[in-house]
């Protein structure tokens, strides 16, 4: 799959996937302007890396964006920098794309619904349990 930021200066190529994850935490909502939808990939080819600015958004992770147009690009955990959680809106999805997980569901505002009835739903406590010791 190929994707790019709004101005096209940063381009991505990843293996095709149809699995989308949604994060409802406050940081992701501020960063994305709504719930953050991402694709997870360990194999990412990036061109235009000199246009990428990294922001340490917490003690456990960073967020990267295009310096030219401001598009949010990806999130990375400090404990696993080889894994990219890429902004799903950088890519054109196959029709069979589906939301497989929603995290920080206990932080989701009431003014919008959950995106999937079948997706795994994890609270902040669930996430902290999964990653305890990783931060």
UniProtKB/TrEMBL annotation:
Molecular functions (GO terms): carbon-sulfur lyase activity; metal ion binding
Keywords for this protein: Lyase, Metal-binding, Zinc
InterPro entries the UniProt entry points to: CENP-V/GFA, Mss4-like_sf
Residues covered by the CENP-V/GFA domain: 1-113
Family: Belongs to the Gfa family.
The name this protein goes by in its record: GFA family protein
Source organism per UniProt: Acinetobacter sedimenti
């Amino acid at each position: 799959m190929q994707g790019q930021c709004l101005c096209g200066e940063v381009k991505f190529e990843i293996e095709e996937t149809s699995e989308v994850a949604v994060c409802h935490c406050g940081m992701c909502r501020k960063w994305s302007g709504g719930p953050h939808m991402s694709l997870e990939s360990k194999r990412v080819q990036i061109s235009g890396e000199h246009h990428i600015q990294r922001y340490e958004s917490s003690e456990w992770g960073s967020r990267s964006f295009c310096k030219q147009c401001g598009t949010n690009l990806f999130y990375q955990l400090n404990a696993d920098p080889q894994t990219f959680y890429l902004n799903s809106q950088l890519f054109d999805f196959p029709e069979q794309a589906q939301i497989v997980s929603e995290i920080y569901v206990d932080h989701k505002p009431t003014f919008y619904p959950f995106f999937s009835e079948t997706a795994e739903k994890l609270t902040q406590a669930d996430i902290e349990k999964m990653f305890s010791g990783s931060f």
